[in-house]
Design goal:
The protein is an alpha+beta fold and 767 residues long. The chain folds into 2 domains: 269 residues, Glycoside hydrolase, family 65, N-terminal domain (Beta-galactosidase, Chain A, domain 5, Distorted Sandwich), CATH 2.70.98; 383 residues, Alpha/alpha barrel (Glycosyltransferase). The chain is built from 20 helices and 33 strands. Helix 5 crosses helix 20. The mean pLDDT is 94.
Length: 767
């Protein structure tokens, strides 16, 4: 694999620092310096405007557009798709001095520094603007999104005159006029535009979905300035002017608030909240909100921090990943949509994919149970849409979308939307993982079981019997390795379908034993028949799995072993991403993997496979994997660590942990890789920590890479906080809060309490 780090950031354990501005990295930096609080997100664009290459994105969770797709003559094709849209620029600010407009694409600047403080969530940018007349002013911008009050954001500009006289003018307010980049047009209609000396507001309505956003802001400044109002068709702003001499300074602050209405049912609540916000805004202050934000992050880092001693580069990388995960989802109040780019860019249209339950949910289930549950609640709330999708594909039950923002299938590539079943089986896996950690039987027996039954029905009608062998399997599918299309008996698909059948049957049996009356009501509600259960059991038992017992290899799909071979190391780095440089059909006609497929289910259900089986499959499939997907490196790192392949484990760990920060895939400009970021957390906890959570008890096998002195992390588990601290020769586990926990440590069942349990790290040999 010829991908390599493209380093330009400074290394610091708590800060992300850009010490100079390079226009060629403008969009990359906008992604890296994105802020979010689950409710809304904003890219790290320049508030003063920038005429160079830029994606000035501001997004609100659950606000999306819809476009029609030309009608197809084929059944099962989509007629529309939905996408997260660019909303109001609440950072809008345009500054001029002595007649010159501030634009870093044109102006001469010195001492540029941009810093994201991971401990407080504050983004700071400063530089000296050297004007053509010799005047020099130092400008500093600060911004943050409130984690405590997610509808609010803060912005501050300070200007110090270093040389000459500065005749300053600036416009600040709210702008709904920006285009949505991927569509190339503005998608908003605006009304109720209000501008006054210290307050601006406007309401925008999406043109296709009729969703609404009310945005308002107040201004605070010193010293006194001259003010007048400014309005445009989609702009509410105020104009400020001030003259400063050498040694003088000014400070300008904006507090903004955004309220959204996602559906007609929310209209009354939207009107009420809009009025509340208008009254609340004048009472807010930049310093108060900033202090609250720092306190929120301080509390969260006590639970979620991963501390690495001896590797500052990856210490910075893993903290950045954890920071972004909490920015993406933490309160579970504003919807559980976790887009492939979070709220940091428009690529993949803000849709959530199958990897949310497989990659992201493990992070939340051990850090924020409410957030983890909300991911599953979203799937239950959108079960009606999944049922309709199944019917359109000639299946019974529920077929969950491979990409969605509202519950409807949004992927307009039929080969993905119609052939990939892993979103549905991923819901089962997410529910099973959630249950093992929380034992939330109320959710399982009221919401979870309905999803399981309907997914099993889909699998029972989507698959078919082999006419020669009598085995059950799935034909014309696409597994996680999306470089293989229209294949038969994809190993991952078949394996996960079997798990779904068995887990559904077990859950129904448990419900019958614990609550026969509820079981009877469920059978009646869903019209379940005893014959269905017999059918599911038979299909699980006779599921086709191509396995060579001699070589201990799972064949990824029928005929995979005979495909033409490609030496992936012969592909030059300028060919990535392959989708942009290779013809579409060229990608499908060889044995190159986009991402793990067989290895994926061997990690998800690690307790069912021996190290010998894992070694054989790792050695076969890893050299064929191009890691075109950001999901890929973390899985390989975790499994390599399990096998004692220290060099592979660390190489993939570095790749995953700093994928965006070091732009490994050369596409950070499009937004952050949210599920890869979740995978980076798994690198430490499941990889070096040796955590396995698929069995009856938690399993931990901590190890430590060469060069590290120690590392530590915490796990929320059954209302307790377990701390794991690993040094060069020993692992130390204890309970920080809550009751004692029984788990398996290095193969020994132990009870972890407030007093530390210490064990030496076993000597390991590479497989």
């Amino acid at each position: 694999m010829k991908k390599y780090a493209d380093k330009y950031l400074e290394v610091d354990p708590w800060l992300v620092i850009e010490s100079s501005f390079d226009p060629s990295y403008a969009r990359v930096s906008e992604s890296l310096f994105s802020l979010g609080n689950e409710y809304m997100g904003i890219r790290g664009y320049f508030e003063e405007g920038y005429s160079g290459d830029s994606l000035q994105g501001s997004y609100v969770n659950g606000i999306y557009g819809r476009r029609s797709i030309p009608k197809s003559g084929y059944c099962g094709m989509l007629d529309s798709t939905e996408f997260m849209i660019n909303t109001v620029d609440w950072l809008y600010l345009r500054l001029s001095c002595n007649g010159e407009k501030l634009d870093l694409a044109q102006c001469k600047t010195e001492n540029f520094v941009r810093t994201l403080d991971l401990s407080s969530g504050v983004l700071t940018r400063s530089f000296i603007w050297a004007l053509s007349d010799g005047t020099k002013v130092k400008i500093c911008f600060d911004r943050f999104l409130s984690m405590e009050q997610p509808e609010f954001g803060g912005q501050r500009m300070t200007i110090n005159v270093l040389e000459g006289t500065a005749n300053l003018q600036w416009a600040a307010g709210l702008d709904f006029s920006r285009p949505h980049i991927s569509v190339g047009a503005n998608l908003w209609d605006c009304d109720e535009i209000i501008s006054s000396p210290d307050f601006c507001a406007l309401t925008g309505t999406t043109q296709s979905t009729q969703q609404k956003i009310y945005a308002a802001c107040t201004f605070q400044f010193e010293p006194e300035v001259s003010i007048e109002s400014k309005q445009g068709k989609k702009l509410a702003a105020s104009l400020f002017s001030l003259t400063l001499q050498k040694g003088e300074h000014t400070s300008f602050t904006k507090i903004a608030a955004i309220v959204c209405c996602r559906s007609i049912e929310d209209e009354d609540a939207f009107i009420k909240r809009r009025q509340q916000i208008a009254e609340l805004l004048p009472t807010q202050s930049f310093d108060k909100l900033k202090k609250e934000n720092a306190s929120w992050w301080k509390r969260q880092w006590k639970i979620s921090d991963i501390q690495i001693e001896g590797d500052d580069e990856n210490q910075q990388g893993i903290r950045y990943c954890i920071f972004q995960m909490h920015q993406t989802l933490h309160t579970a109040r504003y919807g559980a949509i976790i887009g492939a780019k979070g709220l940091t860019g428009e690529m993949y249209n803000g849709n959530t994919f199958w990897d949310t339950e497989v990659y992201c949910l493990p992070f939340y289930v051990f850090n924020n149970i409410a957030a983890a549950k909300s991911i599953l609640q979203f799937r239950y709330d959108t079960l009606p849409q999944a049922r309709k999708r199944a019917a359109s594909l000639d299946c019974k039950g529920a077929f969950y979308p491979i990409a969605t923002i509202s519950g409807l299938e949004c992927c307009d590539l039929w080969q993905h939307a119609s052939l990939q079943l892993q979103a549905s089986t991923g819901v089962m896996y997410g529910l099973q993982t959630y249950m093992k950690i929380t034992d939330d039987r109320d959710f399982l027996y009221h919401q979870g079981i309905e999803m399981l039954v309907e997914i099993s029905r889909m699998l029972a009608t989507r698959g078919a019997w082999n006419s020669q062998t009598g085995a059950y399997g799935f034909y014309s599918v696409m597994g996680p390795d999306e470089f293989q299309m229209m294949v038969n008996n994809n190993a991952y698909t078949n394996f996960m379908a079997k798990k779904t059948f068995l887990y559904t049957i077990k859950t129904l049996a448990d419900l019958y034993e614990e609550s026969p009356d509820q079981y009877g009501l469920l059978f009646k509600k869903l019209a379940i028949s005893s014959a269905e259960l017999v059918e599911w059991k038979e299909k699980a038992e006779r599921m086709e799995m191509k396995y060579d017992a001699k070589d201990q290899l799972f064949e990824q799909q029928d005929g995979f072993f005979s495909l033409p071979h490609v030496d992936i190391n012969s592909i030059s780095v300028d060919q990535f991403p392959l989708y942009s440089h290779w013809s579409y059909e060229r990608i499908y006609r060889n044995d190159m993997l986009k991402q793990p497929d067989v290895l994926m289910f061997m990690l998800m259900y690690a307790s069912e496979f021996s190290n010998e089986q894992l070694e054989q499959n790792y050695n076969y499939y890893e050299p064929r994997c191009i890691h075109e997907s950001s999901l890929s490196p973390s899985v390989h790192s975790i499994l390599a660590q399990q096998l004692g392949k220290e060099e592979d484990a660390y190489r993939f760990f570095q790749f995953s942990t700093r994928m965006d920060m070091d732009n490994y895939n050369r596409n950070t400009c499009e937004g952050l890789h949210t599920t890869s970021i979740a995978g980076a957390w798994m690198n430490v906890v499941y990889g070096y920590g040796g955590l396995r959570s698929d069995g009856e008890k938690l399993v931990l096998n901590p190890s430590i890479p060469e060069g590290w002195q120690s590392y530590s992390f915490c796990l929320l588990y059954k209302n307790s906080i377990i701390q794991v601290h690993t040094s060069v020769d020993k692992a130390e586990l204890k309970i920080l809060e809550g009751e004692s926990v029984e788990l398996v440590l290095y193969g020994e069942t132990v009870t972890i309490g407030a007093e530390p349990i210490i064990r030496p790290i076993p000597i390991r040999r590479a497989q």
